[in-house]
User: Fold this.
Amino acid sequence: MYEVYGIIGDPVSHSLSPIMHNLAFKEKNIKAVYGAFWVKSYDLAKAIEGIRALNIKGLSVTVPHKEKVMNYLDEIDEIAYKIEAVNTIVNKKGILKGYNTDWIGVLEAFNVKGVKLENKKIVVIGAGGASKAVIYALIKGGAKEILVYNRTFEKAKLLEKKFGIIAKPWEELKDAYGDIIIQTTSVGLKSWESPVEEEVVSRFKVAMDIVYLPLKTKFLALAEKYAQIIDGLQMLLYQGVEQFKLWTGIEPPIKLMEKAIYEEVKNMEKEFLK
Ligand code: ATR
Assistant:
């Protein structure tokens, strides 16, 4: 019998998770399939009940359900609770537990690229949902100073209270400097825009973007001359690797998964350039 896994989100049709996980199941000879379930917000509670009814073994959760889904689960992992977002559900004998693997994705992306976070001054652009997982990873990684710039200052202030980072006004982003800069807003997604000018990125040694369409965003293209760049697929890959481990207890074939999602994004880029 095949076990069922999947992703819930709105939209999900372009999700790369089915490619990654189905490949990993096949490669590891695990009898399981992973599907994409397009779930509207008003159906979220019913979708979660559906996991129980259909005995779905695990789910990835994506935008816009990562926060609200916490209301319908039996248990929430401590770190997911702190980040206030669940991106992974594990169904253990009918008990649904929520985890967050996004922060591990961020930490591992830096780790595999040989970037040390210890004692670094790090600038984070954006204070949305994704930013929380990034900030948590930076704290775990031992960053010395974390400055968060956000268009809506109050949201950065909330993160200051929650994580002890430093909230900075958006107008001051043009003067930002430090060791590492991380772009967590949706600016540059399917568009050729960057929240900062070239002069700003020139003051950093490492630049990461969490946007991966296009793979090389304008932000990364500007940074490339001065800094080591890390694209958004790295975080996506390693949050998926950690999900697979939570569901199966098995280390997935990371290199194969990586190759597959980069190929797919190249195809998606062709679509987006049309
Ligand atoms: P996600 O879960 O992907 O982080 P989100 O919670 O909606 O999504 O957050 C989006 C982030 O992108 C926020 O930091 C948002 O800034 P605001 O808090 O001011 O809304 C930021 N963002 C989106 N569009 C932006 C723009 N045009 N300029 C600057 N920041 C923008």
About this structure: Residues 63, 126-131, 150-152, 155, 184-187, 195 surround 2'-monophosphoadenosine-5'-diphosphate (CB under 6 Å).
